[in-house]
Amino acid sequence: MLKEKVIMKKTATIDLKGKAYAQVKDRIKEFRADNPNGDIITTPTITDTAIVFKAYILKDKANPASASATGHSMAKVSEKNVEKQFEKQETIAVGRALALLGYASDGEIASSEEMEEFQEYQQEKQAEVIMEVTEAIGNCQSLDELKTLWSSLSGEMKALVKTAQEAKKLQLNENS
Predict the structure, then answer these.
(1) Where does 14-109 sit in CATH, by number?
(2) What is the pTM of this model?
(3) For residue 34, what is the enclosing H or E element?
(4) What element of type H or E holds 171?
């Protein structure tokens, strides 16, 4: 009895802050290899303020009932970034459609650009919260007020603002 050998392909990935991410260009390459009769159709819609892309992917043009997926993307546009946004939004839409068809390293739908932007957004938000908490620590007028504020913080936030808390505690102790 012959055993069928299954060969699993591994899409090339990059490390994106500790996660393996398959870039859209590599997923397109894999899709084309798997589906030589497949089709990727992108349709842009451009207004004065936004670019919207729709990407429709069909695994086999000869069989309209074959697996298909649609991905969308949208971005606000300014005059200085129209060309780059056009390319980026098309890539994002195609990446989403490919991910919906299973062409993603870890099941993520978002593009690497979206993941990077989201991580930057999270870092900016965290920096804002750290600044707000540091300011609140600086505004404390007594040790009791500082203790109450400190007890309301998460363990992670305490670790991030420990230096500010210790400096304020020293200041309040000196003024007592």
Answers:
(1) 3.30.160
(2) 0.56
(3) helix 24-34
(4) helix 155-175
- Structure confidence by residue, pLDDT tens digits, 59-93: 999 998 899 999 998 888 776 767 777 888 898 89
Domain range list for the chain: 14-109, 118-175
Other C-beta atoms closer than 10 Å to the C-beta of 98 total: 25
SS3 category, 20: strand
CA–CA distance, 26 with 48 (Å, rounded to integer): 32
Going by C-alpha positions, the residue among 147, 145, 143, 153 that lies closest to residue 175 is: 143
Specify whether the CB–CB gap between 34 and 12 falls below 8 A: no
**Sequence-ordered list of residues with C-beta below 8 angstroms from that of 149, at least 6 positions apart, any chain:** 136, 137, 140
